[in-house]
């Protein structure tokens, strides 16, 4: 009976399998390294693209910020121009207020009322004078409240009876004076902001204003 020694063949097969395993492990390592490298390259490319996009967005934001600042400056300039325009318009409209004021006072002043003092501060007018009776003062108040196109919100501050000395008529003794009992009143009234007369827009009596300025309002 023959005996065959298989130990060398087993050793050779073992070595072959070992070499095959090492080759497979090396190939897997190379493949894994390639995958990792490729993944790293892709990730780096993605990061670079994202950085480029971030830079683009940041540049666009800076441009928008500059445009917004320009728009803000333009709005401020427009507001400043509007304020100047309004100031000019108010100045132009305020120039006609005394004419309308005197014209209204001449038109609305009742008989027997005399204005001694007239002053304006802003849109408020203060007037002081004399009237023959309290009824005349009440009539003036009512006219200012209901019949005026340019004046509103009259406020009677005071009315009282006083003695007013006047020169005697020319037929009497020279240098004599007579005393009359009249009613002294103080009254406030406001000028309408955008008054537009409803009755007669041409009723801007320059002659009436001159008369009032020269001699006071007397009816």
Overall shape: it is rod-shaped
Radius of gyration: 51 Å
Structural class: alpha+beta
Number of strands: 4
CATH architecture of the largest domain: 2-Layer Sandwich
User: Helix count?
Assistant: 4
- Series of secondary-structure elements, N-terminal to C-terminal: HHEEHEEH
- The CATH first-level class of the largest domain comes to Alpha Beta
The amount of beta strand, in percent, is 15-25%
Major β-sheet strand ordering: 1-2-4-3
CATH topology of the largest domain: Alpha-Beta Plaits
Could you give a short account of the major beta sheet?
Answer: 4 strands, antiparallel
The whole-number mean of residue pLDDT values reads 77
Distance between the termini: 166 Å
Which regions have little confidence, pLDDT < 50, spanning 5+ residues? Answer: 195-219
Descriptive notes:
This protein is of the alpha+beta class. The chain is 57% helix and 22% strand. The chain has 2 domains: 13-95; 97-193 and 203-215, Alpha-Beta Plaits (2-Layer Sandwich), CATH 3.30.70. The protein has helices at residues 7-95, 97-108, 134-146, 206-215; strands spanning 113-121, 124-131, 151-167, 177-191. It starts with 6 loop residues before the first helix and ends with a helix. The relative contact order is 0.11.
Give the helices and strands, then pairings.
Layout (H helix, E strand, L loop, with lengths): L6 H89 L1 H12 L4 E9 L2 E8 L2 H13 L4 E17 L9 E15 L14 H10 L4
Antiparallel strand pairs: 1-2, 2-4, 3-4
In short:
The chain has 219 residues and is an alpha+beta fold. It contains 4 helices and 4 strands; from the N terminus they run ααββαββα.
